[in-house]
Write a structure and sequence with these properties.
Its main location: membrane. The chain is mainly α. Helices cover about 80% and strands about 0% of the residues.
């Protein structure tokens, strides 16, 4: 009960803070909320199953491009609904054809999927419409975008908490521990993975759709930037992808560090990004939260 009260107070504070900050600070808050939502949605599927997906930007960019295409012909709520439905349909199609893969083959496929979607949209725009970029004209302020993104953060974390306590969460953990044993235990592997993958991908698509009005102008090279996929994975792994609050713990400091690096080292920051990925894998393979738990257990053991 106390945790719930503190959580609601923190949420209320996050809702009213944009009324008292500058445009630059609000931009940082939107960026942090965006990556917390992305990392939490990514961990919803990959956190327990250990399927490392690099297709985040495929769904994120699809959401952004859906808004760019439909923003002048449909009301904004209908555009967001269309983005969610397109993301879910795309996830079902991709999941049905790829979730039989595992390990490095799944990683390679998801990386290739992002590039395939980008090339298909580029070909369509250049060949069919005769243009490449699109403008987004929506009457939304930065505060509107922040509040929508904050709502997606709440939905992503709340949905993950609910799944963790459900039979679906138990099945996902069993798949992550040993897929063969899970199958022999009667767990429907394909259905379980497809449900979690579709929920995760739909949320990621909605994040891209909500974030897109910030750009005003979009083109495939902007919205399908593979850095989004790599950052999302690093953030989730840093905090602890199989922990409820792990993606949030990893996303906020890494986003601020990424912002600082991209401003001060614009030509070399991808090198730092690669080094961080290696460091996270070798130094904190289970994330910060698990590392703190192990440290606390060690200290208790040494005292006793």
């Amino acid at each position: 009960m106390i945790r719930l009260v503190f959580g609601l107070l923190a949420l209320a504070l996050l809702v009213i803070v944009p009324l008292f900050v500058s445009e630059y600070e609000l931009g940082l808050m939107i960026g942090m909320a965006t990556y917390v939502a992305l990392a939490s949605a990514w961990a919803l599927f990959s956190g327990h199953t250990n399927y490392i997906s690099l297709a985040t930007v495929a769904f994120y960019g699809t959401g952004a491009y859906t808004v760019a295409v439909l923003n002048e012909s449909l009301p904004y709520p209908a555009v967001i609904l269309c983005a969610g439905l397109i993301g879910a349909a795309m996830a079902l199609l991709v999941g049905l054809s790829t979730l039989r893969l595992s390990g490095i083959y799944f990683v390679i496929f998801t990386f290739g999927l992002a590039e395939l979607v980008r090339q298909l949209i580029t070909w369509y725009e250049v060949t069919i419409t005769g243009t490449l970029g699109r403008y987004i004209f929506l009457d939304l302020t930065a505060r509107d975008i922040y509040w929508q993104m904050l709502a997606l953060v709440v939905v992503s974390i709340g949905l993950t908490a609910w799944i963790n306590r459900s039979r679906l969460g138990l099945a996902l953990r069993a798949i992550g521990d040993d897929e063969v044993v899970a199958a022999h235990s009667g767990i429907p592997l394909a259905r379980t993975k497809l449900i979690a993958f579709t929920l995760s991908a739909t949320l990621i698509t909605l994040v891209g759709a909500v974030a897109s009005p910030r750009w005003v102008y979009v083109e495939p090279l902007i919205v399908f930037n593979p850095t989004v996929s790599f950052l999302t994975v690093i953030m989730a792994l840093l905090g602890g992808a199989n922990r409820l609050w792990g993606p949030l713990v990893g996303a906020i400091p890494l986003f601020l560090l990424f912002e600082w690096l991209s401003v001060n080292f614009p030509d070399t920051y991808p090198i730092f990004l690669g080094l961080m990925f290696i460091a996270v894998v070798f130094v904190l393979p289970n994330g910060i939260i698990a590392g703190l738990d192990n440290l606390r257990a060690s200290l208790k053991g040494s005292k006793s």
